[in-house]
Amino acid sequence: MRAFSIIILMTILLASCITTDPQKAQYTSDRRRAINNFEEGKEAFDRYQNQLAITRLEQALRIDDEFVEAWLLLGAVHLDENSDSLALISLEKAINVDPNFFLPVHYQVGRLYFNEGKYEKALERFSAYTDKGGSNPGTLEKVRRYQENCKLAIEMKANPVPFEPQNLGPNINSPFDEFINAMSVDETFIIITVKQPVDGREGSPEMEDFYYSYKDPETGQWRPRRRMSEFFNTRGNEGAMYISPDRSFLVFAACGRRDAVGTCDLYISYREGDNWTTPKNMGERVNSRRWDSHPTIAGDNRTIYFVSTRSGGMGGADIYMTRRLNNGEWSHPQNLGSTVNTPEDEFYPFIHPDNNTLYFSSAGHMGMGGLDFFVTRKVDGRWQEPENLGYPINTHHDELGLQVNAQGNVAFISTDRLGGEGRFDIFGFDMPQAFRPDPVTYMKGIVYNKRTREKLEARFELIDLETKETVASARSDQVSGEFLLAIPTDKNYALNVKKEGYLFFSQNFELKGIRDAADPYSKDVPLQPIAAGEVVVLNNVFFDTDEYELLEESKVELDQLVELLENNPEMNIEIHGHTDSRGGEEYNQELSENRAEAVYQYILYQGVDKERLAYKGFGQEKPVADNSTPRGRALNRRTEFIVVD
User: Fold this and answer.
1) Can you list the alpha helix ranges (DSSP code H) found in 362-519?
2) Which end of the chain has fewer CB within 10 Å, C or N?
3) Is the pLDDT score of 322 beyond 90?
4) What pTM was computed for the model?
5) CA angle at residue 26 from 69 to 95, to 5 degrees?
């Protein structure tokens, strides 16, 4: 606030004829002792001796309580000391003595009332600035925006949203600060950051470290939290850890390490069975020379959103996005743009497993003051105008760190304004319906060797066939072969699973309804080792009825086949087309050959040597199911390939 104080000083000097002689200066007081104390207070403030300045100014005002300049400067000093309530008293006194002496004080007092959540009084002061002739263009623009914020805040307080927060209890929270970092999609595991004294004593230096807890399956209560190992917690500060939804990697922020790129950087660690790799700085491609933190990982398991103060942004701390490329590297971060980011600060992004709903805190969007919670949704690849989550979820205080469970019905926040175990505690509450994300459902399974039943680590992609968007890109656990995903429901998906040395697995299915983690959809995945004679059905290759031109959505799967051939240059295949029994034999034979050739031509066009390819149509000769049922006929209408010598 010292900048505002300097403005006050300049105004006082102008009003006093810009003289350095206090006896000749024209002040609103003519009391010599008051003026002397004021001048001494001004000089003390110039020397950053704020307590001495306060003493001298208070002495001046005891002599003359209508000394406007002294009230103004006393308010400015209190602002510089971050004593907003005392500043407000002093500046209001100045206005009461002479409301026209220094018009910018109306704007400043309006800001102080706004910051205290006293929106009606704030409106009065902002209106006074304009009504009395305040004309500074920059201040007028700020006044207009504050007036809009006040009106919105008053409206939101008059129409509160449901909000009944529940403290997560003493097994999670403590007398110190707790901040929620991540919760598993099945809501059985939580990671938090705890800020507490290094030696456990109040008043000693504090440090941030990671803790975790599991939910007791019998009681549904969180077990006592445990500190994570020294592998992640060091003598420095760590915070904001987030684990990918498939639990294959995690990202967190750490400050001041030897390998640092900036003041705080993002670090990444990968899961290997029951262990984690040594955390590694994500490097200059992702991190900047400034501050990078607050990571969150999308449900596709390959997109990270985070906050950075790097140059080139909107003005404050902005939200950025980086995506893992096919070569395993991370892309250069992309600013989410002016729809999400503002010239003020945006913090604590959380991307929901639906991949389309982003929650974050912002000081720049229309709200109730400080940092408010907002939600924005992605439609056709574009982020929509953020929505304020409303009162009393938001208040005039700073709101930090909101997350929402996979089902979208429960939210968690870290706050110090609801009582509880100590300072910042973690609370849960039912998310109002209007702000809930798209519903998601659970799918889990095991990837295994079809011949030996051995559990396998494999990469898999889940693709929305309508949008062609990869909604999940993950890997199964290398020990158990297990995977667990939270994905949007009521959509058609292509599932592609691949592992080096194996033929890829292809399946097309529709997920309807919502299943929880206790009763998820089960999709076990058998992988076939590459060997002559092995057959793979291309379940995501599509044609219109009685047509043989490939539909656009077929190309996702055929590109997987091209990649398989490129990675295994000794492998040759023959593409087979099959039909059901409807139609004549001659017609079906021709149709199956044309469809097999269409696949052949597509692969050939991608640069695969024609000597490695062949195709053949079998018409209705080789059914795999009963042609008397619709399902059986659908299974018989298929395109597949066989590995040949």
Assistant:
1) none
2) C
3) yes
4) 0.82
5) 30
